[in-house]
Design goal:
- The protein folds into 2 domains: about 50 residues; about 325 residues, Glycosidases (TIM Barrel, Alpha-Beta Barrel), CATH 3.20.20.
- It is about 40% helix and about 15% strand.
- Helix 6 runs parallel beside helix 7 and helix 11 runs parallel beside helix 12.
- It is globular.
- It is an alpha/beta fold.
- It is built from 13 helices and 12 strands.
- The strands form 3 sheets. An 8-stranded parallel β-barrel has the order 1-2-3-4-5-8-11-12. It has a two-stranded antiparallel sheet with strand order 6-7. Strands 9-10 form a two-stranded antiparallel ribbon.
- It starts with 8 loop residues before the first helix and ends with a helix.
- The chain binds 2-acetamido-2-deoxy-beta-D-glucopyranose (4 copies).
- One 2-acetamido-2-deoxy-beta-D-glucopyranose binds next to loops.
- One 2-acetamido-2-deoxy-beta-D-glucopyranose (NAG) binds next to strand 4.
C-alpha cells in the first residue's frame, strides 16, 4: 500500500527519526488480537472486501454474532480463526441434540476446514438479561451443542462457550474481591464446572468506558485509557494495577476462583471505546477511542498478562470492526468501529502503514501507532 502523495515530507522525516528509538523500546510486532465483526448495519462492505481488509491489517481472529454463510465462505483459505455465534433466539432449540447437530451440519461443517472455525458461542449476555427461562436453558443448550460436536467428531477442533456481560459481577473492586451476583450463582456454578470439564474458555465483555461514563468525576480517565496514572493497589494482594481493564479481568479470575475454579481460561470477548456519543455520554470522543484502542494494541503486542496472571497474555477481541448504523440505544452504540463502512479508519491507531489522516492528535497516535506496526510502516517508507 503506497502512502498518499499528499503526505508531507516532514512527517516522513519525523517518522524516520522516531523509528530507531521507538524500535529499541518496543517488543517485536505482533497483531494477535481479535476483532468483533458486527453487522447490524445496512451499508457494510461485502464479506470478500472485509476479508481483504483484515488481511491488509494482519488481523487473524474474528468473532461473529451469528454464522453468516457469506462471511464463512468468503474467508475460505484465509488464515483467520473464527468464533461464530448461536443467537439467543435459538438457544432453546439447541437443547435438542438432534437440532444442535443439524445446526452444526448446516452452519459449520460445510465451511470446515477451509474456514477455520474454532469456537461456538451459545447465546450472548444471557445472565445480565431478564429472561430466566433463557438462563435456565443456557447450560443444557451448551451441553447439547457439545454432544453434537462429539457425535460429529468435531469436539477436538471446535470449543463451546457463551459470552457474558461484565454486569454479571456484583463486585469488581478490589480485583481480589471480585464476585458474581448472588442470584446468578445457581447458573454460574454448573456452567463453570462444564467449562472446566470440557476445557473451554470463559468469555466476558469488559468496557472501562461504561465505568467512566457512569461516574466521570469518580473514575480516572487516564486509568481507564491505559495512560500514565498513579494506578491502584489491591490491598488484599498488594498487586498494583495501572489500568482498569486488567483490574476487571482479574476481578473475573477472582469471581471464578471463589466458585472453586482456577482451571478455566478467561478471554475478553469484547472491549472497546466509542468515538462518538450522546451529549450525556462522558468520554465518548474520537481522541479517547484512539487512545484506548491504540494503547490496548500496544499492551497486546507486549504479550502482557494481568497482575494475577502475568504469564498469560491477555486474549482480547476488540469491539468493533465497523461503525454499525442500525444499532439501537445511545449514539455510542453506533460508533464503536475502528472503520467506517467505506473502509476508511475512524482514527489512526497504526493498523495501516498509510494512515489517511494525521490530525491534531499526531503525537499520541503516531507513537502508539508505531507499536506493532513497524514492518508495514517501514515498507511504506521504502515505497515512498
Ligand atoms: C502479522 O502477524 C503475525 C502474527 O501475529 C506476525 O508474526 C507478523 O509479524 C505480523 N506482520 C506484520 C506486517 O505486522
Ligand atoms: C426485559 O428487558 C427488556 C429489555 O431490556 C425490556 O424491554 C422488557 O420489558 C424486560 N422484561 C421484563 C419482564 O422485565
Ligand atoms: C479451546 O479452549 C481451550 C481453553 O481456553 C484452549 O486451550 C483450546 O486451545 C481451545 N481450542 C481451540 C480449538 O481453539
Ligand atoms: C502488603 O504490603 C504490606 C506493607 O508492605 C504488608 O504489611 C502486607 O503483609 C502485604 N500483604 C500481602 C498480602 O502481601
Amino acid at each position: 500500500m503506497s502512502p498518499p502523495a499528499s503526505r508531507p515530507r516532514s512527517l516522513l522525516l519525523l517518522l524516520v527519526l522516531l523509528l530507531p528509538s521507538t524500535r529499541s523500546l518496543l517488543p517485536a510486532p505482533s497483531l494477535s488480537f481479535g476483532i468483533n465483526y458486527g453487522q447490524i448495519a445496512n451499508n457494510l462492505p461485502s464479506p470478500s472486501r472485509v476479508a481483504a481488509l483484515l488481511q491488509s491489517l494482519n488481523i487473524s481472529k474474528v468473532k461473529l454474532y451469528d454464522a453468516d454463510p457469506d462471511v464463512l465462505a468468503a474467508f475460505s483459505d484465509r488464515d483467520v480463526e473464527f468464533i461464530v455465534g448461536i443467537g439467543n433466539e435459538n438457544v432453546a432449540n439447541m437443547m435438542d441434540t438432534s437440532k444442535a447437530q443439524a445446526w452444526i451440519q448446516q452452519n459449520i461443517q460445510p465451511y470446515l476446514p477451509r474456514t477455520r472455525i474454532t469456537c461456538i458461542t451459545v447465546g450472548n449476555e444471557i445472565f445480565s438479561g431478564n429472561d430466566t427461562t433463557l438462563m435456565t436453558n443456557l447450560l443444557p443448550a451448551m451441553q447439547s451443542v457439545r454432544q453434537a460436536l462429539v457425535a460429529l467428531g468435531l469436539d477436538g477442533q471446535v470449543n463451546v462457550t457463551t459470552a457474558h456481560s461484565f454486569a454479571i459481577l456484583a463486585n469488581s473492586y478490589p480485583p481480589s474481591a471480585g464476585s458474581f451476583r448472588e442470584n446468578l450463582a445457581g447458573y454460574i456454578q454448573p456452567l463453570l464446572n462444564f467449562h472446566a470439564q470440557i476445557n473451554s474458555p470463559f468469555l466476558i465483555n469488559a468496557y472501562p468506558f461504561f465505568a467512566y461514563k457512569a461516574d466521570p468525576s469518580g473514575v480516572s480517565l487516564q486509568y481507564a485509557l491505559f495512560e500514565p496514572n498513579p494506578g491502584v493497589t489491591d490491598p488484599n494482594t498488594n498487586l498494583s494495577y495501572d489500568n482498569m481493564l486488567y483490574a476487571q479481568i482479574d476481578s473475573v479470575y477472582s469471581a471464578v476462583k471463589a466458585m472453586g475454579h482456577t482451571d478455566i481460561d478467561i478471554r475478553i470477548s469484547e472491549t472497546g471505546w466509542p468515538s462518538k456519543g450522546d451529549q450525556d455520554e462522558a468520554g465518548a470522543t474520537l481522541e479517547n477511542a484512539a487512545t484506548y484502542n491504540g494503547n490496548l494494541l500496544k499492551r497486546i503486542a507486549m504479550k502482557q498478562g494481568t497482575p494475577m496472571r502475568p504469564s498469560v497474555p491477555i486474549d482480547v477481541y476488540v469491539f468493533a470492526l465497523f461503525n454499525e448504523d442500525m444499532k439501537e440505544g445511545p449514539a455510542s452504540e453506533r460508533n464503536y468501529g475502528l472503520f467506517y463502512p467505506d473502509e476508511t479508519p475512524v482514527y489512526n491507531i497504526g493498523l495501516r502503514g498509510s494512515p489517511t489522516s494525521y490530525s491534531s492528535s499526531l503525537k499520541t497516535t503516531v507513537v502508539s501507532g508505531l507499536v506493532g506496526f513497524l514492518p508495514s510502516l517501514v515498507a511504506a517508507l521504502i515505497i515512498q
